[in-house]
Structure formats: C-alpha cells, structure tokens
Amino acid sequence: MASARAASGAEMGARVIDQLLTEEFFQDHWERVPLHLRAADGGKDVNHLPELLSVDDVADIIGKAGPSLKMFKHNEPSRLRSFLLAYLDGTSMIVNQADRHNQVILEFCRSLADHFFHHVFAVLYLTPPGSQAVRLHNDDQDVFLFQVWGSKRWTVRNAPQLLPYTEEMLGKDCPVPENLVGPPLLEFTMEAHDVLYIPRGYLHEAATGEEASLHITFTIPTSDYCWGVNLVKHLTGQLRSKQLPGPQRSLCQSSLAPRGAAGPAVLDDAALDEKLQELLGSLASQLSAEDVVRSFEQRMERTNDNQGRQFSMMTGGERGRPTRPPRVTEDTRVRLMPGVSCHCEPDSEMAVFSRSGDGQHLEMPILKSSSGLVCALTSKPQWVRDLPTKDPFQRLCVLQLLLEHGVLQLFLKGPEDVPEDPDEPLR
C-alpha cells in the first residue's frame, strides 16, 4: 500500500526527519560523504515538493522576489529586466531566501531547524533547457537539494578542503584552479522526487538537457555554526562591550592609523604588545563554552524571528501592500482578443498577430518550443493548463507576454462567465 502524501511543508519535514535524517545518515554522510537518494529508492517518501509546489507557486515566488532574484545565462548576469523575457532567452532564475515567499518552503525550513539545524533557508533554482545556472564551485554550507520537476545532470567532485570557511570557497568569483579539480566522484541525473545531499566543501556543478529543471536547495549555514566563527563573534561582542575596563575599551576603540584625531598617544611596539596581551588575557579568563553557545543561540533566535517577519511582509501580511495586477495562471482561461487572429507555423520562430478592425500587425519572435502553444490559441476560451507545452513555466511566460502586448484576453472566473458579446472588455 502506498504511503499517504505529505499535505504541508511541516509534514514533509517530519517525514524527512524520520526517514532520511537518521543516525545512520549522520554517521555515514553528514559533513563527510555526498548522498544521492533516487525517487525509486526512497526519494518519493521524503520529497513531496512535486505535489506541494505548483507552477503558479513558482511564478509567484519569482514574481515577488525583488532583489532576491538573480538571473544568470552562461554564468553571466542577464541584462534583461523582465524575468519573463529572460527565461525565454535561456536565463536561469535563482531566488535566494525563497522561504520568505512561500508557506510550504518556510514550514519545511522551520521543521528542520527546530529539530536539528538551528536555522535553515532555501534557494530556488529554475533552469531552462540546455542551460547551466552556475559553474563548478563549492559552498561553505551543507545543502539538501530536492528536485521538483524536470531533470538535471549533476557532477560531484572532491572537496579540496573539507569544511571550508566562507572566504575559502572556490568557483564563486573565478573558475576553480585546475590542479584542485579531481575526477568525478558522482555523475547522475536528478529526476522529480530525487534528493541530493552535498557536504560543505565538495565541488559540484549541474546543467539541463532537453527539458527544464526546478530544484529547491535547503541550506544549513554550517560554517556560521562552527566554533572558530562563533568564538570570533563572541569575542567581538565582548570587545565592543561597555563592561570592559576603561583603558582596555579605549585601546579597542583607538585607530591603527598613527595620528588618529582623537586617539590616545601612540604606543611603541613593546608597550602595545603588553596592552594587547593584557586585553587577551582578560577576555580568555572570562571565556566559557556556555557563554559562546548562549550567544550563538541568541543569534539564531533573532535570525529565525527575522525569517518569520520577512515571510509575513513578502506574502502580504502587512497593511497597505499594493495588489498585483491579474496574471496568467494554470487555473485561468485565455483566448485571442476579439478581432485578433494569429498566424504561426509549427516549429516557427515567428508569430504574426493581426487585428481585423484596423489592419494592424504585430510580429513577435518566439521559441520553436513555443510554436505549438501559440498555434493552439483561438477565439475560444481555453484553460491554460490544457494548452500544449513541454515546459509549463515557459507557457506562463509566453501567455503573460501576449497578455501584456494586448493580443490575449484573460478570464479570471468560471466558464459560465464567458461573455456572449465578443467585444466585451477584458475581465
């Protein structure tokens, strides 16, 4: 008997905790060895995002992401402002902190955070066919990748340095040096319901083939959790504390510049060494593991509170947030505007829209993969979800652009609300 599907992000989190994040996982894989869990080998039991996230949900996340949306084509930022045009141009969409924009994703992050990881955030990666979002690189974080739709070819390589700090990451600003790139450890294709765990430090890259791919990366910022970073943050807080003795606080506030306008008299090297040793001795005498852990937990509490506030704000929880104009979704219907006809051949890269009233024509370049969709448009209202496509996100982009160009009519209500008068204004 098939197991019941998760109905929420919290329920999915419970299944992941019970079936994936076991003692065996933490002994054999956590911050040690990558793991690819295929759908057929248990991925379907833990990754329910294909059922919990619709194409409309993804379009909503991207549409309201604002500065959290990054668009890359061939590892370079896209110059196109519209994500609709950018995606059709072969650009990958990356939404940082996607948990701030979707209830399911937020619930899942909070579930993992509450049980194991203190704080978890999510990054959305939507990649069109034949594309690569980012080149070979590694991260200063442990990540779980949940494939939502489509497929993506992955290569995971060695970790030149296991458990790197943020400043030790590779491949972000420039290619990874060739002498640090080892042979592939894993090469595979991620399919819907698959899960991939990549420990902090392992090099990895991915690209799509003939179909688009959507995956969500759930990120545990483990370099921020390590003792080295937290000792520095705790001591930084102590150095800024007003509880330091006057001379030590004055030393901390003084400038390294030799002639600070309001600084104390310049000390020679021997005197300065003595003062610094005195300061460090004072800090060390008051240092305790309990205090470091308490400071860390307080920071995580503030971070999680901020995550919740931003979600409330981004999803319209605050008053006065402007409403978005009607948009094409899978559950709306569309037709050509009254008096508009379309000429488009199969596999064509051009569609011509003509208006009978004034004889105007609009020539629009399209993708070959969109020609079947455009050819299917008629004067009769059709459900968007029924229009032919291999890429449902591409379908939304094409139809939204046609709506914005005034050649498409959008219906937000049911079939009984189709106007009898073909010239009735757009609803």
Account of the 3D structure:
This protein has about 425 residues and is of the alpha+beta class. The protein has three domains: about 10-225, Jelly Rolls (Sandwich); about 225-255 and about 265-315, no CATH class; about 335-415, Outer Surface Protein A, domain 3 (Alpha-Beta Complex). The chain has helices at about 10-20, 25-30, 45, 50, 55-65, 85-90, 105-115, 225-240, 245-255, 270-285, 290-315, 370-375, 390-405, and strands spanning about 35, 70-75, 75, 90-95, 120-125, 140-150, 150-155, 185-190, 195-200, 205, 215-220, 335, 340-345, 350-355, 360-365, 380-385, 410. The strands form four sheets. An eight-stranded antiparallel beta sheet has the order 1-9-6-11-5-4-2-3. A three-stranded antiparallel beta sheet has the order 8-7-10, with no helix packed on it. Strands 16-12-17 form a three-stranded antiparallel beta sheet, covered by helices on one side.
